[in-house]
Amino acid sequence: MEMNIKQVIPPTPGRGIVIAGPCSAETEGQVMQCAKDLAKLNQVDLFRSGIWKPRTRPGSFEGVGTEGLSWLKRVKEETGLKTTTEVAKASHVYDCLKAGIDVLWIGARTTVNPFSVQEVADALNGADVPVLIKNPINPDLGLWIGAVERIYKAGITRIGLIHRGFSYHGETIYRNVPRWQMAIDMKRRFPDLQMVVDNSHICGNRHMLAEVAQEALNLKYDGLMTEVHPRPDEAWSDASQQITPQVFGELLQNLRLRKPTVDEMEMEPLTELRRQIDEIDSDLIGMIGRRMKLSDQIGEFKAERNIAVLQENRWEAILQEASRAGKAHGLSEAFMERYLRAIHQESIDHQDAIVNKVR
Known about the structure:
Blueprint: E1 17-21, H1 28-41, E2 46-48, H2 67-79, E3 82-87, H3 90-99, E4 103-106, H4 108-111, H5 114-124, E5 131-134, H6 141-153, E6 159-163, H7 180-189, E7 194-198, H8 199-203, H9 209-218, E8 223-227, H10 245-254, H11 262-305, H12 312-328, H13 333-358
Parallel strand pairs: 1-2, 1-8, 2-3, 3-4, 4-5, 5-6, 6-7, 7-8
Helix pairs in contact: 1-2, 3-5, 5-6, 11-13, 12-13
């Protein structure tokens, strides 16, 4: 589908697009304090705040609802900051348009459901408002593309993307693994769409926010969306990933917006390949860590039953199967043996420690 996409926000030279504000609008005082502190930075393009919060389980804070829209209206009037919030169904869209919200965004839990996206698109039909679309929770490029197409078919031409990472079953350093290559593929499919990184939801913690933001800018993203709260530890949702306006200002100050040179452009294919390797390495380390935890459980089982740690028949079977599987993937038998011996030795060390502790 050919699209005539326009910018959601004209980027400020030297820093890109900056979207910031609390995960959730909690009270009018909290919203206004955060907005006023962010306005002092003179670097924020959009003040973000969740009015309706889709939660995984009932009983969690699900947002203040339409009452909070009047607070965002006051933010705009008193600070001059433009505002944005998440919409997930038709009534949200109507309420936001009525309240004069400047930019709407579709969240990851909505993007994953074409029925919900279509409901939002139908409500937007005939409106003139920019829309940002987060990647779906699961790594499905088709769902993200479909959401863009549905919103565009509703007559919205100012569309942008938010990369917030993808759910991952297992241990990882991220709350949502970035899978940078998927976002890069999306940007290649739609080169005119501005893309910002939601470093808060990728990280799920404060200490990695600057690192992930810089990573995105290195990959030529157009800006970032970060959750900022006047008192992060007291936040009603996602407290661990929010930072104060002061800390956010320091984060912005330390970011380096890279300008592509001819050499950098020539290196881009190599950079992307290395990025994929880094992502796979991160997954491998997480999987090896989970393997060792299972090995610990086996060690406890052996200790309880006074079973020897080394089981030679099992080890030989692992070597043979891995050699066969490795060969199918172009890996030499010698490499597979070296790799498995290292893993096996670490497992033995873990189990020895457990058995000796029990004894």
